[in-house]
Design a protein that fits this description.
Number of helices: 31
Shape: globular
Helix content: 40-55%
Strand order of the largest sheet: 9-10-8-7-11-15-13-16
Distance between the termini: 119 Å
Radius of gyration: 37 Å
Number of strands: 17
Structural class: alpha/beta
Strand content: 5-15%
C-alpha cells in the first residue's frame, strides 16, 4: 500500500492501524494518478481485479470504498465488518480464510489464499465509462442535486439492470434502475476526507458489470431494502435521542463508549492504553515457586519448633521469634506481587480523539505543582530547570499552569523564578522548534551524546550555540543571586520598589502570589503564548500548625482551583524535572480514556535519578521497588502514591468516591410456583437478603451523599449572586464545612470537568486566592482529614493514596520507555540514612494512628492484596528489632560456642537447602519478569539490612516518643545536587548517630569471627565442623553491611575517630557483659562429683 509522505503505524496483534497525514494532507491526486475510487480508510486508490477487470468491492451491501489491503487487514485483525453498514465482510476470491468463513460457499482457491499478501492491485487505469457506475439509492428520485443529467437514465437504461427485475415490490417501481450513490457521511455523521458535493466529478462511483447478476452486488432484493430501512430508522432514533440529551442536532456522539453500533475499527475509537500481563512462561513458574516456598516454610518451622536447643534455649527462642516475623513480612511483601502487569499507551490515538485538525484541542487542562522549602538545600538553579522543563512540555500551552510553592518565603526563590520566566521566553521556542530532549537545560547541555543526531535543520547548530551562551548567562545571574543571599541585611530584604520583602520572617508572614507568565498577552520570542507560571507562598503565623509539605500542597490545590481549576493535577518535587516532554500525554491516555478512565484517581510514574554512581552503593535508584513491587500492585488496584511524579484527578483529591457502575438485577427462576419457593424457605432468605442489602445501601448512602449530590451540581448560589435550582440539593453550610468559607473555591469543586465559574474575573480570583491560602482557612473543615493531602504523617503520600483507594478509586502505573521524570538522589551515606529515617518515621506514625490499614477502611473499596501492601508499608520499621537481634546472634554464637540449631540431621539439611534454593529462585524469577539486574537486586538486599539496623530503629523510637509522649521531630530536607564534581558527595562524611548501630554490629561480628577461628585452632580439627555454620551466619551479616563499611572509609580509606571510639566502646561493653552475665548458658556450680566404683577404705 502506497502511503506517499504519510506515516502508517500498525500492529497485527493489537488491532492498530493509523495513518498520520503530513505534507500531502488535503491534496488531491491528478486525474492520471487516480483510478476513480479512493479508499476511505487509508486514502489509497482502490485496486482493479485482474481477472474481472473491475474495481475491488469489499462490501456487497453498501459498497463502502475500501481497498484490498484494508479489507484484508480488517478481516485479520479488526471487527471483520464494514465500517458503514456493520455487515460482516464475506471472503473474496484469493483471500485467506478467517474464523467464521466456514459457513460461506465458494471455492477454496488454496493457491491464492496462501499468497494473498502478494497481490499488487496498484496499476494506474483510466476512469471507467460512466455507464458502468451506479449509486446506492433506489429510483430516479436520488439523482437530483448530484450533478447527473436527468436524461442519463433514459439514455442508458438499456445498459443498467432494473432494481427489482421488472417486478413492483413494496412501493418500488418496476422500472427503477440500480443506480448506486454512496453517501459521504462516515461513522456517526463524520464526513470522510476527500468527499465533496455539488459536482459529479466529486462523486465516488461504484462500477457494476451489466453482464453479471445484480444480486451478486447485494441489490435488487427485498431483504436488502428492509435492511437499509432498518438501518435508517436506527440512525434516526439515535439522532433524536442525541438531540433530547442536549446534542448539537444531527451529530452522533463520536466517543460514546456504550454505542456498540459505531465501528471500533475507527482508530480514534480504540482504547488509549492496554494492559500487558507478564508472559505465562515467566509468571507461572514464579507463582509455583512462591507456593513451594510456603510449603517449605511450613516444614522449616515444624523442624525449628520441634527441635529446640536445650543448652542454648534463649538463643534458639530468639532466633525462632525473629524467623517467624521475617516470614510474616515476606508474605505481606510477596503476595501483592501475584498479578504483575505492564501497560502500553497509544499517543497517536489520543491525538486522533482529542486533537482534530482545524479545531481547538480537547485535551484536558493540567495544573502542575512544584514544591520547595529551603533554597540553601534545594538550589534555585535546580528548581529553575524543573520549571523550564514544565513550561516547554509538549502539551497545548493554554492548558498548562505551573504553580511553584515556596514554603520558606525566600526572596531568593522569588527572584530566581523571575529570572526563569524571562529565560523561558527564549528556551521554550528553542525546545519546540528542534524537538529536543530533555527540556531541562542543565541536563540537556550536560549530555555526553552526539547532539547532531537526527537534527538536520540548518540553523540548529548556530541556535544551539547561541542558546548555550544564553543559558550560561542565566546561570551567572542565578549564582549571583545565591551569593548575594548568603549575607542577610539587618533590616531584611527589600524589593526593587524599596518595600520590605513580606517574607523576611519565615514563621510570620502573609500569603504571597505572583503571576509571572500566562497573562496580559506575554509572548515568547517566537510570538507564541507561554504556559501560566504562578509563584505561591502561603500565609504563616505563630500558633498555627501548618502541616509541612501536606499543608503546602493543599494550599496549591485551592489556589489553582480559584485561578485555573484544571481537572488534573501533576505534582513534582523541585529536583524532579520532566525528562519526557510527552509525559502529560502518557497520563492522559489513562485519565481521559472514556471507558476505563473514570475510576482512575492518579497515574504514578516511576522515579528515576541522575548523578548516581555506577554501582549505586546505597541503592538510591530503588529499582526493585519501582520495577517489581509497583508492577505487582498495578495488577490489583494500582500502585501506592510515592510523593512525586504523579498526575491526580482533582475530584479524587476532594474526597469524592469513585463512580460505581450499577450491577444488573439478578436472574430469578420462574420455573417453580411461588408456593413451592415459600415452602422451601426461599422467601425468607430473600427477605433477609433484602434487609441486609438495604442496610448496606443506607450505610453507604451517608458516605456517598456528598459525592453524588455535589456531582449533580453545576454552580453554587453564593458565586456573584448567581442562584441555581439544583443548589438546594446540597446545603451551603455543608459544603463550606467541608471545603471552607470561599464561595469561589466551593463553586469550583462542583465542576467535575474543571473550568472557571461564570462571573468571576481574574482580579477577584487573585483576591480569593489570597484568602484560600490564609493560615486559618482550614479550621473546622475537612482539609487534611478527608479532603486533599491527608495530615498526620510526614509521609503524607502513603496516607493520601491509601484514602483514595479506600474510596473505591484505582490508580495506574505508567512506565514509558523514556523515563517521564528524573531527579537527584542523596548519594551521601548520612543523607541517605536520614531520608530513609523520614520515610520510616512516617510509616510508624501511620501505624499508630486511626488510619492504620490493619484496622481502617474495611467494607470500603480497598482490595485485600492492596491492603497487604499498605500493611507492609507501615509495618516494615518494626522489623528493625528482630533484624538487630538476628544480626547479633552470629557473634554471640561464636563467642559462646553455642548455636541456634541442634546437630543437623539429613532431614534438616534437605529442608534448609530447599529453603535457600526457593529464596534464590524467587529472586531470580522476579529479576527476570521485572527487568532488574542482579547488581540492583543485591544492592537492595544489602541496604535493607543497613537501613533496618539504623534508620528504621531510630524511626521506631522517634515515632513512639512523638505519639505517646508528644515529642516532635524536626523535618529534615534532603540536600539536592552538589557542586564539587561528579560523585563528590559520595565520599563526604557527615557525622550522625545513625552510623553507630551498624558499625557496632560489624565490629561484634568481626570479633566473633576472630574468636571462633582462634577457638577452633586451639581445640583441634573436631571443632571445625560445628564452626562452619556459625561462620556462614556471621559472614552473612558482614557481607550485607559491606557497603556501609565502604562508605565509612570514605575517599581517604579512613574511618572517623569518633565512630571507631563509640563502636569499640559498645562492642567491648557487650562482650564484657556477655562474659559476666551469659544468660543463655547454665551456670557452673563447681566440679561434678561421680561415684567411681572403687572402695577408698
Amino acid at each position: 500500500m502506497e502511503t506517499g509522505r504519510r506515516l502508517v503505524a500498525g500492529s497485527r496483534n493489537r488491532n492498530e492501524f493509523v495513518v498520520i497525514n503530513a505534507d500531502d494532507l488535503g491534496k488531491s491526486k491528478s486525474a492520471h494518478d487516480s483510478n476513480g475510487q479512493i479508499c476511505q480508510i487509508c486514502g489509497d486508490d482502490i485496486e482493479i481485479l485482474e481477472e474481472e477487470k473491475e474495481l475491488f468491492v469489499a462490501c456487497n451491501e453498501c459498497a463502502f470504498p475500501v481497498c484490498r489491503t484494508c479489507y484484508e487487514y480488517e478481516r485479520r485483525e479488526g471487527s471483520q465488518a464494514c465500517p458503514r453498514c456493520k455487515t460482516r465482510y464475506k471472503r473474496h476470491k484469493g483471500s485467506a480464510r478467517v474464523e467464521g468463513d466456514e459457513d460461506e460457499d465458494g471455492d477454496d482457491d488454496i493457491y491464492k489464499e496462501l499468497n494473498y499478501f502478494n497481490f499488487v492491485g496498484k496499476e494506474t487505469v483510466s476512469v471507467p465509462d460512466p455507464k458502468l457506475y451506479g449509486y446506492p439509492y433506489a429510483g430516479q428520485r436520488s439523482l437530483s442535486g448530484l450533478g447527473i443529467p436527468s436524461n442519463y437514465v433514459q439514455q442508458n437504461g438499456s445498459n443498467i439492470p432494473l432494481l427489482t427485475y421488472g417486478e413492483e415490490v413494496d412501493g418500488i417501481s418496476c422500472d427503477d434502475h440500480a443506480l448506486i450513490i454512496p453517501p459521504y457521511g462516515g461513522f456517526g455523521g463524520q464526513v470522510h476526507q476527500g468527499a465533496a458535493s455539488g459536482t459529479s466529478a466529486s462523486t465516488q462511483l461504484r462500477p457494476i458489470n451489466p453482464n453479471k447478476d445484480i444480486s451478486v452486488y447485494g441489490y435488487g432484493t427485498v431483504a436488502w431494502k428492509n435492511r437499509i430501512d432498518e438501518w435508517k430508522t436506527k440512525q434516526l432514533s439515535r439522532i433524536q435521542q442525541h438531540q433530547l440529551e442536549g446534542g448539537d442536532g444531527g451529530y452522533i456522539d463520536r466517543y460514546d463508549p456504550d454505542n456498540s453500533d459505531l465501528s471500533m475499527s475507527d482508530e480514534s475509537r480504540q482504547p488509549l492504553s492496554r494492559k500487558m500481563p507478564i508472559a505465562s512462561s515467566m509468571i507461572s513458574p514464579y507463582r509455583i515457586i512462591i507456593l513451594l516456598r510456603l510449603v517449605i516454610l511450613g516444614f522449616f518451622f515444624q523442624y525449628r519448633l520441634l527441635h529446640p536447643v536445650p543448652d542454648a534455649y534463649g538463643l534458639w527462642l530468639t532466633s525462632v521469634i525473629c524467623e517467624i516475623w521475617f516470614a510474616i513480612s515476606w508474605i505481606l511483601d510477596q503476595f501483592p506481587k501475584w498479578f504483575p502487569i505492564e501497560r502500553e499507551t497509544y499517543l497517536d490515538r489520543l491525538s486522533l480523539r482529542y486533537e482534530k485538525e482545524g479545531k481547538p484541542s480537547e485535551l484536558a487542562d493540567v495544573d502542575i505543582f512544584v514544591s520547595t522549602v529551603d533554597p540553601t538545600k534545594e538550589p534555585p538553579l535546580i528548581t529553575a530547570n524543573t520549571v523550564l522543563s514544565i513550561l516547554a512540555v509538549d502539551y497545548p500551552v493554554d492548558k498548562v499552569s505551573c504553580y511553584v510553592s515556596d514554603d520558606g518565603a525566600a526572596m531568593l526563590t522569588f527572584e530566581a523564578l523571575s529570572e526563569t520566566s524571562e529565560f523561558a521566553k527564549k528556551w521554550v521556542p528553542f525546545c519546540k522548534k528542534f524537538n529536543i530532549e530533555p527540556r531541562a537545560p542543565e541536563w540537556y547541555f550536560a549530555q555526553k551524546i552526539d547532539y547532531l543526531k537526527d537534527k538536520v535543520h540548518p540553523d540548529f547548530v548556530r541556535e544551539r550555540r547561541a542558546m548555550k551562551r544564553e543559558y550560561e548567562e542565566f546561570k551567572v545571574h542565578i549564582n549571583a543571586l545565591v551569593a548575594k543571599a548568603q549575607k542577610v541585611p539587618e533590616e531584611g530584604w527589600t524589593m526593587q520598589d524599596g518595600t520590605l520583602w513580606p517574607g523576611n520572617n519565615v514563621r510570620d508572614h502573609p500569603g504571597m502570589i505572583q503571576v509571572f507568565l500566562g497573562h496580559n498577552g506575554v509572548l515568547d520570542e517566537a510570538g507564541n503564548e507561554l504556559p501560566r507560571l504562578v509563584y505561591v507562598s502561603r500565609e504563616k503565623r505563630p500558633g498555627y500548625d501548618h502541616h509541612k509539605k501536606a499543608g503546602a500542597m493543599n494550599s496549591l490545590v485551592r489556589v489553582s482551583a480559584v485561578i485555573s481549576n484544571a481537572p488534573y493535577i501533576l505534582n513534582v518535587d523541585c529536583d524532579h524535572y520532566i525528562n519526557n516532554c510527552k509525559a502529560l500525554r502518557e497520563a492522559m491516555c489513562f485519565l481521559m480514556d472514556p471507558i476505563s478512565g473514570k475510576k482512575v484517581c492518579y497515574v504514578q510514574f516511576p522515579q528515576r535519578f541522575d548523578g548516581i554512581d555506577r554501582h549505586d552503593r546505597y541503592s538510591n535508584r530503588n529499582v526493585v521497588f519501582f520495577d517489581i513491587n509497583m508492577k505487582g500492585l498495578d495488577g490489583i488496584q494500582g500502585p501506592i502514591y510515592v510523593g512525586t511524579g504523579c498526575v491526580f484527578r482533582r475530584q479524587a483529591l476532594y474526597g469524592f468516591d469513585a463512580p460505581v457502575k450499577e450491577k444488573p438485577p439478578g436472574k430469578t427462576c420462574n420455573c417453580w410456583p411461588k408456593w413451592c419457593c415459600s415452602c422451601c424457605g426461599s422467601k425468607r432468605r430473600n427477605r433477609r437478603g433484602k434487609i441486609k442489602q438495604e442496610k448496606k445501601k443506607a450505610k453507604w448512602a451517608k458516605h456517598r451523599e456528598a459525592s453524588i449530590q455535589v456531582h449533580a451540581l453545576e454552580s453554587i448560589d453564593k458565586v456573584k449572586g448567581q442562584e441555581n435550582e439544583s443548589s438546594s440539593l446540597v446545603p451551603r453550610e455543608k459544603l463550606e464545612k467541608k471545603f471552607g468559607q470561599s464561595p469561589v473555591f466551593v463553586a469550583s469543586t462542583l465542576l467535575e470537568n474543571g473550568g472557571m465559574a461564570q462571573g468571576v474575573g481574574f482580579a477577584s480570583c487573585i483576591g480569593e486566592a489570597i484568602h484560600v491560602i490564609s493560615c486559618g482557612y482550614e479550621d473546622r473543615t475537612e482539609w487534611g482529614k478527608e479532603v486533599g493531602w491527608i495530615y498526620g504523617s510526614v509521609t503524607e503520600d502513603i496516607l493520601t493514596g491509601f484514602k483514595m483507594h479506600c474510596h473505591g478509586w484505582r490508580s495506574v502505573y505508567c512506565m514509558p520507555k523514556r523515563p517521564a521524570f528524573k531527579g537527584s538522589a542523596p548519594i551521601n551515606l548520612s543523607d541517605r540514612l536520614h531520608q530513609v529515617l523520614r520515610w520510616a518515621l512516617g510509616s510508624v506514625e501511620i501505624f499508630l494512628s486511626k488510619h492504620c490499614p490493619i484496622w481502617y477502611g474495611y467494607r470500603s473499596g480497598l482490595k485485600w492484596l492492596e491492603r497487604f501492601s499498605y500493611i507492609n508499608s507501615v509495618v516494615y520499621p518494626w522489623t528493625s528489632i528482630p533484624l538487630i537481634a538476628y544480626c547479633t546472634l552470629p557473634a554471640i554464637c561464636l563467642l559462646s560456642g553455642k548455636f541456634i540449631v541442634p546437630e543437623i540431621s539429613s532431614y534438616a539439611s534437605i529442608v534448609f537447602m530447599a529453603l535457600f534454593i526457593s529464596i534464590a529462585a524467587t529472586g531470580i524469577l522476579e529479576m527476570q519478569w521485572g527487568g532488574v539486574s542482579i547488581d540492583d537486586w543485591w544492592r537492595n538486599e544489602q541496604f535493607w539490612v543497613i537501613g533496618g539496623v539504623s534508620s528504621h530503629l531510630f524511626a521506631l523510637f522517634q515515632g513512639l516518643l512523638k505519639v505517646l509522649a508528644g515529642v516532635e521531630t524536626n523535618f529534615t530536607v534532603t540536600s539536592k545536587g552538589g557542586d564539587d564534581g561528579e560523585f563528590a558527595e559520595l565520599y563526604l562524611f557527615k557525622w550522625t548517630s545513625l552510623l553507630i548501630p551498624p558499625m557496632t554490629l560489624l565490629i561484634l561480628n568481626i570479633i566473633g569471627v576472630i574468636a571462633g577461628i582462634s577457638n577452633a585452632i586451639s581445640n583441634g580439627y573436631e571443632s571445625w565442623g560445628p564452626l562452619f555454620g556459625k561462620l556462614f551466619f556471621a559472614f552473612w551479616v558482614i557481607v550485607h553491611l559491606y557497603p556501609f563499611l565502604k562508605g565509612m572509609m570514605g575517599k581517604q580509606d579512613r574511618v572517623p575517630t569518633i565512630v571507631i571510639v563509640w563502636s569499640i566502646l559498645l562492642a567491648s561493653i557487650c562482650s564484657l557483659l556477655w562474659v559476666r552475665v551469659n544468660p543463655f548458658i547454665a551456670k557452673y556450680d563447681g566440679p561434678v562429683l561421680e561415684v567411681c566404683g572403687l572402695d577408698c577404705n
